[in-house]
Amino acid sequence: MPFLQVGYKRIFYTDTHPEEGTTPKETFIFTHGLGSTSSYYFPIIPALASAPNNFRCIAYDTTGQGQSPYTQVEQSISTLAKDVIGVLDALKVEKAVMVGHSMGAVVAPFVAADHSDRIVAAILIGPVLPTPEGRKTFEKRIEAVEKGTERSQLPMSMKVTDADPCNQTEWRQWHPQSQLPQPEPSPPHSNTPSSARFSSPKHLLATSPCAES
User: 108-160: per-residue pLDDT in tens?
Assistant: First the structure.
């Protein structure tokens, strides 16, 4: 399995290129949401990488999620943002379009604002800004994971066909094994960067990239 060493973190990733001999039009880097994995994007990557799009697509599991082991070091939006640049550096990618879903869409503006020379555009899918109320929910979730009780709370009777293709792929990775990520760091209180710091184009999607129109 492909892993990158980004500082003290071991990061699982996939790197999908266009057909051999085809120069990528652009490189996309995909960051998933909290409790999710890079598999969320797998249904759309083949279409993006194939003709006529011909994009290079890099997707990775954030630390403590999916196949990227948790380091027991508390994380923040800032450290997750640094990991994006770390992945690009490790793969020798100078510039990319960043795609973020949910928590990943909270990370993306920080990366775009601080590294406008590297992030040429940002696509934000359903960004969820942490709030004091939301933090309480996540703290309960962390407690359940640490106690091993969250496994029993998974909707085992849910049908994969009830979800859109992106969530179907993610669900298949989790079910029936029901393998949970390591206890998650609580999302930090954070404000989105001032729009004055952005020089990269931004596009906001309020739904799943796999949702039917």
Answer: 999 999 999 999 999 999 887 767 776 777 677 677 767 765 544 444 444 54
Check whether 194 has a pLDDT greater than 80: no
- Closest by CA to 62, choosing from 16, 12, 14, is 12
Place of tokens 């990488």: 49
**Separation between Cα atoms, residue 82 and residue 75, nearest integer Å:** 11
Helices 103-114 and 77-90 pack at an angle, to 10 degrees, of 70
Domain boundaries, the chain: 3-205
| Domain 3-205: assigned CATH number | 3.40.50.1820
Strand partners, 203: 123
Q: Give CA separation, 197 vs 102, 114, 157, 192, 203, in Å.
A: 21, 8, 46, 10, 16
Is the pTM higher than 0.85? The answer reads no
